[in-house]
Each structure stands twice: as C-alpha cells, then as structure tokens.
Amino acid sequence: MDSVDDRDFQKLLRSVGGSDVGFYFVAVNTDLNPDEFNTEEIYNKQQLRSRIEVLASASGGRVVFPKKPDEVVKLYEQLAHDLGTSYSLGYVPTNVARDGTYRKIEVRLRDRSLRLRQSRKAIRLGRCVHDF
Fold it and tell me: pLDDT tens-digit profile of 72-114?
C-alpha cells in the first residue's frame, strides 16, 4: 500500500511532525543497500525506504544507508557529531488569530563554511507542504 493511502502511517506521520523529537535512522537492507537482490521484494524495500525518509524529514532527522557492515560505526559517529554540533531555532507567530496557516521561514548562513544540514517539514494532511 502506498504511504499516502495508509491511514496508520499518516497518523504516525502527523504525530512525528508535531513532536519535538528528531528521528535518525541507520537503514540496512533497503533497495539502496540490499543484503541480496530479490526482484520480488524490491517494491516493498522501496516503500520501506520511502517511509523512513518521510519520517526523518518530517522530524528534522536524517537517514543514512550503509553499503557494508563496517560502515555502520562511522555513520553512527557522523550522526552523533551532527547531534552534538546542532542548534535549535524557534519561532513564535505574531498572528494572534491562530488560524492554522503556515509561514515559510528561511534560514541563511553568513559564514559560508557552515552548512545547514537539517530541516523540518510542516505536515498538513499527511503531506509535507513547506520547509522550515
């Protein structure tokens, strides 16, 4: 079943998008890094990868895909580094009507040596509609 039509997944996605928790995944045995290639399972692996990517994006987290088992530790170290060197940005709308409309927020970095590596997507009816 496609994730857009999966009510349980859409409920989970709304919960993730409304939380203050970033979801980080080290994904193994997906269509990008299969243990073995099986054409009958490729669709299911694509669906699984897609859902993991949507959850990570909605939460401001990230997904990494190790190709070999010895890459797992390095990828965990990268995620730990990212989490240890991150900043949070908050926003309080001035619209007192609280009408549920979204505002687009753009972040620009003055120091070009820095990189914006995380963003969070706003969730409305299970679809990502704006980048924050």
Answer: 899 888 888 877 776 767 777 777 777 777 777 777 888 888 7
In the chain, the number of structural domains is: 1
Return the DSSP state at 29.
S
Q: Match 């409304």 to its residue by tokens.
A: 18
Q: b/e string for 10-22 if b means 16 or more Cβ within 10 A?
A: bebbeebbeeeeb
Residue 110 dihedral angles phi and psi, to the nearest 5°: -70, -40
Task: Please state, in angstroms and rounded to a whole number, the distance separating the CA atoms of residues 62 and 84.
Answer: 14
Single pTM value for the model = 0.64
Range of 63's domain? 3-131
Q: Bin 79: left if φ > 0, else alpha if -120 < ψ < 50, else beta.
A: alpha
